[in-house]
Design brief:
The chain has 396 residues and is an alpha+beta fold. The protein is built from 16 helices and 12 strands. It has 2 domains: 5-34 and 290-341, SET domain (Beta-clip-like, Beta Complex); 38-237, no CATH class. The chain has a 4-stranded mixed beta sheet, with no helix packed on it. The longest helix has 22 residues, at 257-278.
């Protein structure tokens, strides 16, 4: 599909931005983008959120998905034909048994990075360097997850396998880079107080598992920190769910009023019961690097939003308003609740997690507001941690 936007350099302070190349109507898709690289989160995979190892498509049927999230194997979903999962197409890597949603994904993974990362018969061997790396990462980065060391591993593996290594190095270098101080802040945010010791341990394990002389800089303390910060700043949350796909399909059914009311009530109750059992963790989750999407700047009144309506890693950017040719396209890095808070609170979150202060029209209009948080915000202030930052993009 044609892309209705292009990246342009704005200033050294702001870096790049994304601009409309034609008039875009509200509700229109600005573009659909495939990530340069992506990976499921490690705890998410460990807890049996089964997703295609390449494109993150959910692999369970909607019914299996709902049964697992509810902890109730007797649950039966009505309208099972509305589930889009095709188990007959699923394939496994013959050597290490990771599962793909299709032959195409298996092949794409093999061609891009899986030859290097395939664990073969060592899949369950805790002493294998890649398993040691993953275990160390899980012990440092508990749910809610915001990043994965395997995204970095896939970047290295991609370059190791590539015939044209320079092309890939250039592809990764176009993602926003930070200064040493900023990098340190981002890494600190991802790893918490013990970050210096943890980062060094990760670097040693990463080197043991993946060292490559073409990329020797990435394995030095500075280079590894830069790589880490690049993924921390540019990584876009991806969420997929066969249950939410089934719900969307059911919403589109043309049903008599009584059946419609019954179905809606069933779905509402199902989500309430699932929340009691599994909390907010409904989706298969991971993160990816998207060239165009990573150029989108933040606004507290965004004119576009990202979503994953195809139940895989294909990111859709959709206009929330009419956007004129030449206008900047902005998304929000904050979720709906955070956007309703005072300018002071919003900027506190943005500074801590993305290292900038917002100057969107909403923030400029509120510039004279007192720099204090209102009472009810004060109570919630301590909660602005990673949980809220599970970028709203992971809502399917």
């Amino acid at each position: 599909a044609a892309v209705a936007a292009e990246a342009r350099f704005i200033s050294s302070a702001k870096g790049k931005g994304l601009f409309a190349t034609k008039n875009i109507r509200k509700g229109e898709t600005v573009f659909v983008e495939r990530p340069v690289v992506s990976s499921q989160f490690l705890w998410n995979a460990l807890y049996n959120y089964r997703a295609c190892d390449h494109c993150l498509r959910a692999l369970e049927t909607a019914e299996e998905n709902a049964q697992r999230l509810l902890g109730k194997s007797s649950l039966v979903l009505p309208y099972p034909e509305q589930c889009s999962i095709r188990k007959d197409l699923h394939q496994q890597c013959p050597r290490c048994q990771v599962t793909y949603c299709s032959a195409e994904c298996k092949q794409a993974a093999l061609e891009q990075y899986h030859q290097v990362l395939c664990l073969g018969p060592s899949r369950d061997d805790p002493t294998h360097p890649l398993n040691k790396l993953q275990e160390a990462w899980r012990n440092m980065h508990y749910p809610p997850e915001t990043s994965s060391i395997m995204l970095m591993a896939r970047m290295v593996a991609t370059i190791k396998q590539a015939k044209d290594k320079e092309w890939w190095i250039k592809a990764f270098s176009q993602f926003c880079n930070k200064t040493a101080n900023e990098e340190e802040e981002i890494v600190h945010k991802l790893l918490g107080d013990k970050f210096k010791g943890q980062l060094e341990l990760l670097r040693l394990l990463f080197t043991e598992a993946l060292y490559d002389e073409h990329l020797s800089r990435w394995f030095t303390p500075e280079g590894f920190r830069s790589l880490f910060a690049l993924v921390g700043t540019n990584g876009q949350g991806i969420g997929t769910s066969s249950l939410s796909q089934w719900v969307h399909a059911c919403d589109a059914l043309d049903l008599p009023m009584l059946q419609r009311e019954e179905l809606d009530a069933f779905i509402d109750q199902l989500y309430k019961d699932i929340e009691k059992e599994s909390g907010e963790f409904l989706n298969c989750e991971g993160s990816g690097l998207y060239v165009l999407q990573s150029c989108c700047n933040h606004s507290c009144i965004p004119n576009a939003e990202t979503s994953f309506p195809e139940n895989n890693f294909l990111l859709h950017l959709t206009a929330l308003e009419d956007i004129e040719a030449g206008e900047e396209i902005c998304i929000s890095y904050l979720d709906c609740c955070q956007r309703e808070r005072s300018r002071h609170s919003r900027n506190k979150i943005l500074r801590e997690n993305y290292l900038f202060t917002c100057s969107c029209p909403k923030c400029l209009a509120q510039a004279d507001d007192a720099d204090v948080t209102s009472d009810e915000e004060e109570e919630g202030e301590g909660e602005t941690d990673d949980a809220e930052l599970e970028d709203e993009m992971t809502d399917v």
